[in-house]
Each structure stands twice: as structure tokens, then as C-alpha cells.
């Protein structure tokens, strides 16, 4: 068992002396106060012993024999990708989208994009064609990086109709690139391995992460190069990364966790990242921890619940003694998972709370701090968090322990999002004075631990994914039989929540099993299995406000037997 002393030895003392300027000094920086995330992740290691250290330990889908890629080799490969962008005429500031499974050249593309001063946007490969197209139309990328299979299955039918996309680069191994695409590997092999990383203003855009809202289109949260200060600091002091550690973040780079803590934080901290191309398989996961001697493991509560469901026999058949620190993110971690980790895996899981908009961990449990199972933990150094209520006179902070209110954060941390793309008003409404409004309900106990209560809107959290009901409803409403659709999340033992749709039909259509299968099949094809509803229930009509908005809150309350709350705006109420 790895017994390295934690980087954060005394939480209270460290917080008292912490400043973001101090955190910036832990990075190399560039001349004249300039900064580049890729410079901190790769270039600054090139004159140190870390250059020859393994950066990526890649496990292919059909193999568990690792392929090791050093920091120097990853840096060179990223330089080649940056040169490809330059040769294609892609200008700094333009957007590059990545739609790919976890293969090494995806990581080279992310870092090469940042080196060239472009903005990178990750997309989840399990999305269906419609969510991908919607995000492309909003963000207008100049380049789409993907694989031949994903291109043919999800992109080829519509990409020619999106004028912003000038180049589609395929990064997997090809016999021949389909018409309208370029063989990125061949271009990278032919490009120079030398590239001078662009020195960016810390406030220059670097990453665009999409997150779903309760209504309207997905929101593109924009992050800047200075976000690397938070990524590095939280990697070191929250996830307790030490140089040379074997580290495994199981999140896909298509989500913010897989970028912030699956690429940036580990590389700036000089660790070896395990990258597993395969999907979840409990026995494979335990073998990876055992064989690769994983010391720090960052995963999702959904995965932990799946491991728990499969019992204790598998983990007890493997040597997991290399694990020093385990943490989770994406949704609340139930107390049983913390206890199970300690009893079965030999270490407790440390919950961490953050959002796409925060860019990095904001509240967490730490290696040297007693865990209160079910608690989010305490704010990271440099973050002022509070519980607040909204009153007629404005935002009012709640001092009483145990009182529920909205979790709010004092703005100004480096990885705070700088805007929603094309949605300036929505961004402004995310703040009340100096406070960022998270939209999550929480309480704080007398010792300063925060406890998650729930969201105050309709966004569904399923297996760590944020799903906007509107996206799902839109696809269902396109079916000729559907008059109305309302989508909610319902509790699920493994996924946390799963999507359930309520559908009312137009006259002349029968609510039978054939129609249900047709709707579910259409949704899975368009949205992908991660987003499509698992259950569809037919209703004569759905609860609506007088203005016509489906009351998802009421659907959820009636489905789960919860109090219905205020129904004064319900159509027909009081009549």
C-alpha cells in the first residue's frame, strides 16, 4: 500500500495561508504573464526528468497489454497536431471539436489544439447524431476530430450542411479516408515534431464544455487558459497526486471531468495516466488496478454502485493494495459507497462536488480529513462557499447550521466559466452580485461540512451525465403520433437517475406496445442510449401551466409520491 504523506497535511492551516497567486507560482507560466494549458501539461516537463516518464499508459479495447507513451512522445505528437492545424489554415481562437473514443491521438489532439491557441470542445461519443449536430451548430467549429466509425454513423449525413466545419480529421487507423475527410494520422506523421506553443493571455478562451439546461438548447460554458491553475491545484491537494503516481480517471474526455481530471490536472502534476479504451467491466477494472498498481483512482458513483451490486468476491480476488486515494464525482455519493470502499477495497471513497461551470472541484473530502459519509466535504482552499436563500431584498446568506438553501460560491476563482456561448443574459442570471448561483440545494453543518440536498431545476443526472429534458422531449415530439411529452428523472439503484417520458397522443393513435417500441427506438437512434428514455408512459394529458409549459415538477411528484407543492399556475387550477 502506497503510504506517501498527503500533499494537504492540515486543511485549516493550508486554507488560512492560501492565495490563488501562490497557486499560480506552482506553475511555470510564460513570459510577460502569459499562459497556456498545454505548456503547463507538457512543455514545462521537457527539461526535467519527467520528460522520459510515462504520461499515458494506454490499454486498447481488446487488450490489457499496456502501451506506454512518455511525456516527450506525447509532447511531440501534440506538436505534430498543432502543425497540422497551422498547415490547414486554422487560426488561433477558432474551435476544434473532438468526438472520439479514448485513444492516444485524441489526447494529442486536445493538447495540440491548445498549443495552437484554438479552443477545444469535447463531445461524448455515445451521443446520437442529433445532440452532436446541435452542439456543432451552436459552437460553429472549424475542425471536427473524430474516427471513421463515428463519422459514418453519426456525422456524415449532415456535416456538409454546417458551413463552419472546414475540415473533418479522422484520427484512427485508416486504409482510406472517406470523401470529405482527412487522414489525421498521415498528416501528423508527415508534420514536424517541433512547435512553439503559443503564449496566451490567461483570459483567452481554451475550453468549451456543453451542459444541458431544463429548457432550450444546450449551454456552452466557456473556460479560459487560467483554469489550469485550479486544475493543477486541485489535482495536487484534493486528489493528492504525486509526481510519478499511477493515476486513473475513468471519465470519458467527452465530459468535463474527463478533460479537467483525465487530461489537464494529471499531466500538470507529472503523473502516469491510465487510459482504458474499453467500457465498464468490473473484472477488467479490478485487474487494471492490480496490474498497473493504480495509486489514485477517480471514478463515478454510478460505477461504484455497479461494483457494489456485483459483490465482494471479485475485489477480494485481486490485490488492490496499491490504492492510496479514491474519489468520486458527477453526482452525490451515497454513504454506503464510502463505507463499502473502506471495508471491501481497503480505502474510503472521497466525494467531490463541482459543475461544468465551475471547471474544477469546489467542495471535497480530503486525504487527511475525517469523512462524514454522505457529505460533500468542505470547500477547496481559495473558495468561499455559502448556503443562501432568495428574498425580496436580495440574496441572504444562511448562518444557521442544517438550514437548506442554494449553494453559492464567491466568484473569481481561475476555472470559473467566463460565459455561456451566445447566451449572455443566461450567464448574467447565473450570478447575484459577487455570488455564483449553483442551482443546487445544500445545507452546512456546525463543523463546516456541506451536504447535498438536490437540484432546484429539472436537469436529470444519469450515470454522471447531465441530461436536459427538453432535448429528449423535442425528439419525441417529432413523432407524428405525439401531441405532448414531458421528461423527468426517476431514481435508479445503479445510474442514480434514469430518464422517464410521459407522452400524450394525437387523436387516431393507440397507446400500444408497438408505438412505445417505435418511440424508444427513435429516441435511442437520435439521442444515443445514454440520453434516450428508459421508460415511456402514455397519458391522456399532461399537467401544464396556463401558458402551456409542461410541469415536470408535478410529473415527478406524482410519480414518486412526493408533495405537489404550489399548483396555482396549473391549467384548470382554481376553476
In short:
The protein is an alpha/beta fold.
Describe what this molecule looks like in 3D:
The chain is globular and about 70 Å long. It folds into two domains: 11-438, ANL, N-terminal domain (Rossmann fold, 3-Layer(aba) Sandwich); 460-560, GMP Synthetase, Chain A, domain 3 (2-Layer Sandwich), CATH 3.30.300. The chain has 18 helices and 28 strands. Strand 22 (435-444) and strand 23 (450-455) form a beta hairpin. The chain has a nine-stranded mixed β-sheet with strand order 2-1-11-10-12-13-14-15-16. Strands 17, 18, 19, 21, 22 and 23 form a six-stranded antiparallel β-sheet that branches. It is of the alpha/beta class and 575 residues long. Helices cover 30% and strands 24% of the residues. Helix 4 packs across helix 5, helix 9 packs across helix 10 and helix 16 crosses helix 17 (513-527). The mean pLDDT is 92.
Strand content: 15-25%
In total, the number of strands is 28
Could you list the spans in which at least 5 consecutive residues all have pLDDT below 50? Answer: none
What sort of overall outline do the alpha carbons produce when their principal axes are compared?
globular
Helical proportion, percent range = 25-40%
CATH topology of the largest domain: Rossmann fold
Strands side by side in the biggest sheet: 2-1-11-10-12-13-14-15-16
Radius of gyration: 24 Å
Could you say which structural class the secondary elements and strand pairing correspond to? alpha/beta
Using the coordinates above, name the CATH class of the largest domain: Alpha Beta
| The CATH fourth-level homologous superfamily of the largest domain | ANL, N-terminal domain
Please report the distance between the alpha carbons of the first and last residues: 68 Å
Q: How would you describe the oligomerization state of the chains in this entry?
A: single chain
Overall average pLDDT: 92
Integer tally of domains: 2
Quickly count the helices.
18
CATH architecture of the largest domain: 3-Layer(aba) Sandwich
Query: What's the story with the biggest beta sheet?
Result: 9 strands, mixed
Amino acid at each position: 500500500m502506497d503510504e506517501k504523506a498527503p500533499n494537504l497535511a492540515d486543511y485549516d492551516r493550508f486554507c488560512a495561508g492560501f492565495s490563488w497567486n501562490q497557486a499560480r507560482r506552482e506553475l511555470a507560466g510564460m513570459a510577460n504573464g502569459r499562459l497556456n494549458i498545454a505548456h503547463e501539461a507538457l512543455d514545462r516537463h521537457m527539461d526535467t526528468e519527467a520528460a522520459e516518464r510515462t504520461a499515458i499508459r494506454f490499454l486498447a479495447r481488446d487488450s490489457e497489454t499496456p502501451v506506454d507513451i512518455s511525456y516527450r512522445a506525447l509532447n511531440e505528437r501534440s506538436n505534430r497536431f498543432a502543425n497540422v492545424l497551422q498547415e490547414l489554415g486554422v487560426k488561433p481562437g477558432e474551435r476544434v471539436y473532438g468526438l472520439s473514443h479514448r485513444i492516444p491521438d485524441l489526447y494529442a489532439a486536445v493538447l495540440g489544439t491548445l498549443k495552437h491557441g484554438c479552443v477545444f470542445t469535447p463531445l461524448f461519443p455515445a451521443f446520437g447524431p442529433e445532440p452532436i449536430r446541435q452542439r456543432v451548430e451552436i459552437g460553429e467549429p472549424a475542425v471536427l476530430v473524430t474516427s471513421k466509425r463515428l463519422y459514418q454513423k453519426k456525422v456524415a449525413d449532415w456535416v456538409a450542411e454546417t458551413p463552419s466545419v472546414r475540415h473533418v480529421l479522422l484520427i484512427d487507423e485508416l486504409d482510406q479516408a472517406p470523401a470529405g475527410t482527412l487522414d489525421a494520422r498521415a498528416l501528423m506523421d508527415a508534420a514536424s515534431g517541433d512547435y512553439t506553443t503559443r503564449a496566451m493571455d490567461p483570459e483567452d478562451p481554451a475550453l468549451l464544455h456543453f451542459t444541458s439546461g431544463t429548457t432550450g438548447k444546450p449551454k456552452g460554458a466557456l473556460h479560459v487558459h487560467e483554469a489550469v491553475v485550479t486544475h493543477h491545484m486541485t489535482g495536487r491537494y484534493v486528489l493528492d497526486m504525486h509526481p510519478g503516481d499511477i493515476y486513473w480517471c475513468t471519465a470519458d474526455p467527452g465530459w468535463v471531468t474527463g478533460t479537467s481530471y483525465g487530461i489537464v490536472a494529471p499531466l500538470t502534476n507529472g503523473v502516469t495516466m491510465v487510459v482504458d479504451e474499453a467500457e465498464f467491466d468490473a473484472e477488467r477494472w479490478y485487474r487494471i488496478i492490480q496490474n498497473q498498481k493504480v495509486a489514485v483512482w477517480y471514478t463515478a458513483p454510478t460505477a461504484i454502485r455497479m461494483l457494489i451490486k456485483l459483490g465482494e468476491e471479485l475485489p477480494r480476488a485481486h490485490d488492490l493494495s496499491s490504492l492510496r486515494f479514491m474519489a468520486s464525482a458527477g453526482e452525490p455519493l451515497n454513504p454506503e459507497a464510502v463505507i463499502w470502499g473502506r471495508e471491501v477495497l481497503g480505502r474510503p471513497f472521497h466525494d467531490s462536488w463541482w459543475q461544468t461551470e465551475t471547471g474544477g472541484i469546489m467542495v471535497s473530502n480530503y486525504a487527511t480529513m475525517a469523512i462524514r459519509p454522505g457529505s460533500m466535504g468542505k470547500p477547496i482552499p481559495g473558495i468561499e462557499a455559502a448556503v443562501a436563500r432568495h428574498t425580496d431584498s436580495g440574496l441572504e446568506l444562511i448562518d444557521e447550521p442544517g438550514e437548506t438553501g442554494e449553494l453559492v460560491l464567491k466568484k473569481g476563482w481561475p476555472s470559473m466559466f467566463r460565459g455561456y456561448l451566445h447566451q449572455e443574459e443566461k450567464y448574467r442570471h447565473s450570478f447575484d452580485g459577487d455570488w455564483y448561483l449553483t442551482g443546487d440545494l445544500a445545507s452546512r453543518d456546525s463543523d463546516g461540512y456541506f451536504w447535498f440536498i438536490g437540484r432546484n431545476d429539472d436537469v436529470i443526472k444519469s450515470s454522471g451525465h447531465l441530461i436536459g429534458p427538453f432535448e429528449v422531449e423535442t425528439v419525441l415530439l417529432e413523432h407524428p403520433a405525439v401531441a405532448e411529452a414531458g421528461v423527468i428523472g426517476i431514481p435508479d439503484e445503479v445510474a442514480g437517475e434514469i430518464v422517464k417520458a410521459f407522452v400524450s397522443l394525437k387523436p387516431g393513435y393507440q397507446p400500444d406496445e408497438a408505438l412505445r417500441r417505435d418511440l424508444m427506438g427513435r429516441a435511442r437512434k437520435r439521442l444515443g442510449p445514454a440520453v434516450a428514455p428508459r421508460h415511456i408512459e402514455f397519458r391522456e394529458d399532461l399537467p401544464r401551466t396556463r401558458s402551456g409549459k409542461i410541469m415536470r415538477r408535478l410529473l415527478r411528484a406524482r410519480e414518486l409520491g412526493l408533495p405537489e407543492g404550489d399548483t396555482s399556475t396549473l391549467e384548470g387550477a382554481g376553476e
